[in-house]
């Protein structure tokens, strides 16, 4: 007889990329945890954070403060913070919030099951930025879902003076086009009709791949897939806008 699964609650701040990351968190934890929309019932409470705007950081810190009472009431509940604020603050966040069990950065999503198991015994910090696009497990699409967020790249090489993305998301890496096409195709076969492609700078997609592919070429490869009604993308940097894309 299989053991009943534990419950995980995920609170997401920020952009569509963070929403997609939260979906991945739920999927990599799915063998041991089932999603709940009731934070008071959670065995694992994760906060996926955004550091682009100061207000988002302040909301995260305010939420962490308010969760002290819940942690005292349910000390067996594990509390973790991921995403850009976690990447930026690292061990400082763990030191500032005594009731926090786990801090994991933007490249730590696929190590979550192991980190959570370790956090049950000892507080954990993992903010290592890896090279290359992480090997993601296959997505599991909910039947009847009409829209999907599909990450095609991560990181940025522009280092604009006003932006923290290269520091919290790492350098720019593109996902192999075959993996993207296969993921979108599986979503369409499950009944989906609309896809949004995500990256910090989708206009520079394809650079650094073993077989370079431009972003317009990827769009053309996806646009011909049967069942796709709408194809969107976000975000883009104007300096990398090409005539081919226009």
UniProtKB/TrEMBL annotation:
Entry keywords, A to Z: 4Fe-4S, Iron, Iron-sulfur, Metal-binding, S-adenosyl-L-methionine
MF-aspect GO terms: 4 iron, 4 sulfur cluster binding; metal ion binding; tRNA-2-methylthio-N(6)-dimethylallyladenosine(37) synthase activity
Organism this protein belongs to: Desulfobacca acetoxidans
Cellular component GO terms, alphabetical: cytosol
Keyword Iron: yes
TM region(s), chain numbering: none
Protein's name according to its UniProt entry: Radical SAM protein
MTTase N-terminal domain mapped to chain residues: 6-121
Domain Radical SAM core positions: 142-246
Reported cofactor(s): [4Fe-4S] cluster
